[in-house]
Amino acid sequence: MTVTHVPVAVIGAGQAGLSVSWYLGRAGIEHLVLEAGTPVHAWADTRWDNFTLVTPNWHCRLPGYRYDGPDPDGFMTRDEVITWLAGWLDTFDPPVRAHTRVTRLSNGPTGGFELTLGSATGEDTITCEHAVIATGGYPLPVIPPYADSLHESVLQIHSEQYRNAEQLPEGAVLVVGTGQSGAQIAEDLHLAGRQVHLAVGSAPRVARAYRGRDCMTWLSDMGLYDRPAAQYPGGKAAIEKTNHYVTGRDGGRDVDLRQFATEGMRLYGALADGAGTLLRFDPTLTAALDNADSVYNSICADIDRHIDQQGIDAPPASRYEPVWIPESEPTTMDLVTQNVTSIIWAIGYRPDYRWIEASAFDGGGRPMQTRGVTNVPGLSFIGLPWMHTWGSGRFLGIDRDAQHIAATIISNYHESVLRLAVGH
């Protein structure tokens, strides 16, 4: 049945968009969820085979549904997350139109919004009063402009395309970037026995466990995941930094790049540029490693203060001491000489809201919003990092964020109905 108008359109059927749908459904608000693929497909499509969550399983909570398995302090694998999400989807029936991409959002002819939809059967439009953008904060993978000038014999993929070591040609691998994906993919290749070269970025790191508990459990007890972005220590500069690298693999452990170096991984500073088979690196390795360790120890010190203030009985405090220090800063690499046959770009993603024709974005193309609500009447966002707190964009904060967005829509919806009923 063709729908030409719906009060609320949710664009994106990941866990964030479906969480808003859950609350709208409970309130009896007619809505439609539009999804370019299938619900929560990104978990199967963009994670590598040995992917695990970096947050403990007890963080996993969605509307009406929480992790209740035997290992709340463990870390679900990719396939376990897919199964867990499938169990959640079995608890309700969201009105999803799959394989339908919204290619344009513009002002509606009589208010609200008009959505242009593309699918295998062609293009059509629908209108809505409220639109919730749940397409993710950064959908476009970043590849540097000089990548095209590198020698054609070298395979280049983005981290979202990586699945396992076997998909890559024989030879050494260069991983560029040490955010969560880059650091964990480098570890995955290292454990698979590949020679790994790693261009180390500015990402900080965190201990997996400290003084008898997972660090993220300590930080949750300390209220850091509940603190609004505007009140977070360090302000905007702190919340815009890359996430700390750590892993949940094999029950969870630190990611220590220095330790990898003692085991044969080769570390470099940030990759500056390249052409043909020659790459050039900035001499930033020592500073990057020192900064990551400084953040690691700083977080542990914050936990120490919390333990002291609360009088908690815990194992003694400690500090990380470097197990390896670079003797020099390599600034060049010849791909042929080092037998590097593949490069994995793990330098992040960028926003892409060009399809949205609304004055809701800053100069960097990011939504201007407060807890997901913009100044454009009826337009809101869900699932963005730091949309409200550190928990936003993670399983831990999605339920709260979705409840707020849905409550805003429901309130506006009932006010509109009341105005129509009294003739205003």
TrEMBL record:
The keyword Repressor does not apply. It holds the Pfam family Pyr_redox_3. The keyword Oxidoreductase applies. Signal peptide: none annotated. One of its GO terms (molecular function) is monooxygenase activity. Keywords: Oxidoreductase. This is FAD-dependent oxidoreductase. It comes from Mycobacterium adipatum.
